[in-house]
Amino acid sequence: MWHWRSSRTLIIGTAMLVFGLCSLLPSLYVLVTALADVDGLSAMLLDARQRRLLSTTAAVGLGAMAVAAAAGVPLGAILARSSLPARGAIRAGLTAPVLLPPYIVALAWTYLAGHSGWMSGLPAVAIVLGLVLYPIPMLAAEVAIRGVDARLEEAGLLVATRSHVVRRITLPLVAPQILAASLVVFVLAISDFAVPGLLGVRVYTTEVFTAFAALYDFPRAMVLALPLLLLCVGVGSTASMVMHAAPTVGRRVTRGSSLLNIPNLAAGVAVVLVGAAAIALPGAVLVNEASGVRSWSGVVEGSAAAIWNSLLLAGVGATLVVMVAVVIGYAAARIGARAARMVDTLLITVFGIPSTIVGVGLIALWNRPGPAGSIYGTETMLVLGYVARYLPVAALVMAAAMRHVPVSHEEAAAVSGAGWLRSAWCVVLPQIRLAMAATWILTFILAFGELGVSLLVAPPGESTLPIRVYTLIANAPSSQVAALALLQAATILIPVALLGTLAASRWSEP
Amino acid sequence: MTPPHLSVQRLTKRFGSHAVLDGLSLDVSPGRLVVLVGPSGCGKTTLLRVIAGLDLMDAGEVWIAGRQVGAAGRMLVPPNQRQIGFVFQDLALWPHMTVEQQLDFVLASGGIPTAARRARTQAVLALARIEPLARRHPHELSGGEQQRAALARALVGRPQLLLMDEPFSSLDAELRGAVRADFRRLQREAQVTTVFVTHDRDDAAALADEVIEMRDGRLTGSTLAATREGPP
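Structure tokens for the assembled complex are given below, as produced in the milestone run.
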């Protein structure tokens, strides 16, 4: 009789079921299967090659983390503590690399290196991934530095030099957030499959892919996935714990001390240097390479089906992800603080699971006789892959947005006679509609560039734009590949730039 | 003797091992304005939330207009069916709705036809003296105007019980006096039974038919306001 709660329970339960089936079950299946294969596991642990793989994978992660932090943290400080003009536009521009599929940036660097071969090997992978992922520590550093109360720094400035205050007061306060963001970079770097593959470095993701797609050795793929899975889960959960353990220094009253502002000249030089290395140079190389293409319309026509497929599937995937993420985000925002931390940790950890492992898990679950088999071999698998990969991060964003809607708003609706559904529809959702739109765009971008799962689960004959670009790298003239890569980058960045401009003009209205 | 409109019997509410409300009983006659006064953390807000059905109780009973709405660990009547008006401490005005839309939302939730909703909304806006603000969003209102809007929203559905959780705490002294007078007038005109919690004794002295002291989850004493009229 008590519809107020029962409708909520039903909807949240359904969303949890989707999360469990799509995002958790594939990886759990891989984990359990790998652990059950005792012979394969013990053989692998004794294998020197496996130990080399582990050290190379960890080195890629640590290298990318170092490059990303070295580029991102100073930029975050500049965005928070300089008076550079048009900082909003600078921030948007500097964030662009993380929106692009990493293999496009890697492709540009390989064209730049030409046949000299200096753009290969482990350092190259770390540099490329670092230059793609630096916006994560950059944004984390900016938010953390903006959150430091000026009074804390000013109390130090009364008795110590500026550099001493920065080292002893500001940095310790913002270090946990920066460390957590760097650990996220580590997880994303060791999860990447395309860049090491393109630059000829053997890491776990490429090995899992080769074992499954080239050698058809499914048990080996499962066993190989285990160390990577454990590493990602361990680091991902550590990142979440570090983030939550960040010191609370009281309510921020004013922005950081103006005495610690960064001079505009130094700030400008840093922005230009990183912007050139991460955006301008790769972009210019791709444009230069693509200028050799004979007919742009021919390039577009040749890949029209893949482009359309990518747009459609990414759109469907993003819509499904947002629908489920809103509900999970709501549940995560309305439970107790300790449970919310556990949910956040779970979501961050699941998001860090590499795409090749998710792909192998999805195949293991769906490639079987019966109703599951009728789905396997269709484009639905690609949508399931997008949901599996991006539902956790979308749910994290939605939970953060939901936490800004006071519970009292819902309670006011409830005592006003509204049932839960009406309250959710009329009171909660309108307050988070911008966050929902942003999450849809983020998910669409990620799904549009997704490669690791797509390569594994795409049905025969079906192709998305990332698959087409990746397969053409070895089989087509570089001008055509560069043209397609530019097309893919433009499809991602132009709508984001337009929406950003629209949002900026709307917010600047009086 | 008139039976109580609100009756709370032996109410206990615990958070962990700590009893925030400890066997508390309270009766409020129809149309009365009872002010609960007590220090922060004494359980005032929790009591209102349990009465409204926003929190479950561990022991006791809650009756509104002769109907049992809550029992130990059970929600006999959900909040949206208790016909309660609630003014929250932070007012909880929905930021994406105009004042008019906030009132309309309450009436639409009660299934009232559009024409009747419009008439009732206008009447309550007039009663609260905020008709010119009908098309404004909460962020376009001053503190006092927001208070009136929240009160109008709480009253528009003709609640059988009005609960107010320190609604004037964010106002300065001058504005507080004006809003207090407006609220008292509205409460009298609506003839709605009201429980008002505050830690401010000036609020209590200015508003109450009866002031009840609260401490450590219990009621410790009651004072009838001598100078005010009895229940309407």
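DSSP finds six helices and eleven strands in chain B. Chain B has a mean pLDDT of 88. Further analysis is deferred to the final report.
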